[in-house]
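Re: Re: token formats

Sure, here are both.
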Amino acid sequence: MESPPSSSPDSAHDELADLVRRFMESIAGFSARLPFLTDHQRLHSIATVVILAVSIAFAWKFLKAPTYRRRRQRQPPDQLPALSDVTSHSRTMVQGPEAFSSAGDSRVQDVVDDFFQPVKLTVPQLVRQKFCEGHKVTCRLLGVVLEETNPDDLQKNVTVRSSVLEVLLEMTKCCDLYLMERILDDESGERVISALNDAGIFTSGGFVSDKVLFCSTENGHVSFVRQLEPDWHIDTNFEIVSQLARFIKYQLHISLTRPDRSASNVFSSTCLEGFIGVPIIANCTSFPAVVFQAHASGFSA
């Protein structure tokens, strides 16, 4: 008696795996173009449920396929196999499709799991994924780009955060970036410009010092943002973020406390590089801290 062919089910499950792979690639390509965060864990769960449902349907169709049903053939009594052989043969016929179906489901699940393995994107890819090329972005300096968090600190020294430097350099290449801050005197503004220049901000992507804006009040800060009408605004002041929520398409609130979102278009993160997705610890060692101190250049505090 001839055994049932095995190439057909293998081919069917290979086609299913290929279909799953192409389906997941199309979803990933679509989500990568979105300007906001995508919950890959939820997407993974939904995709897994869909794939399992399809696998069950294929398995059911396979079990009912007439190819694997052996027609009973009447044989003479002397040609009938022993009872133990019949029992063993029956078990093989029952276990075969079940084992194959389980293996096929496992193969499809492996395709899904492999697809959702973390992909190590480069910093330029991460920046472009969050801030689409050509979009206008406004960003506060204190607490985001600089280590200092208060305008008073700028009268003593200015420190560019090492962990955000690479991200900032990429943003100058792919975004229409504007940096802004409230200062107490003109000397503080000069210190900021010099620190950014020492960090190499003005030598990459055509970013110029004219795009670093200073004001003396928080209202002036808000006025800058509204006049520029950016696609993204990055700030540490929750009141300013809440005030601008009606006018700006997307905002990123930088805060160590991670407060609740004030609006659907407001995102929060502990730091800019964390929001982008850059490994903070590894990135912190990539660049030394760039410090520009007042006494080093003759400025009075």
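Second one below.
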Amino acid sequence: MQVNLVDWLKRMVANRNPEAILDPKLSEKPSTRALKRALLVALRCVDPNAQKRPKMGHVVHMLEAEESPFRDDRRAGREPGRAHQDSPKGGSKEKHQTESGDNSGCESGVHADGS
């Protein structure tokens, strides 16, 4: 029997059972909120409409958000004073350039164009 991974994941989320997707061998489980956030990013990446899928720079930004279980804490030490929480609040949205050179124009998981 074949199982479509995306459909299975959508069922787990729809049935409010996202913890079922976690590898039981994980030494540290993410918080429910962080897990749901990561799953939403994953589901956006497999949207049937390619135009709605986020660019990689946007994906990186969403996964590096403070609440994310996948955030690499070493990144904060790489650029002193440039952690995400230091972003100006209420100011204009700045473009963040990733190592791949992608200017996604997003901040806090929102594209500069409002999508």
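The mean pLDDT is 70. The chain has one domain: 5-73+95-111.
- S.
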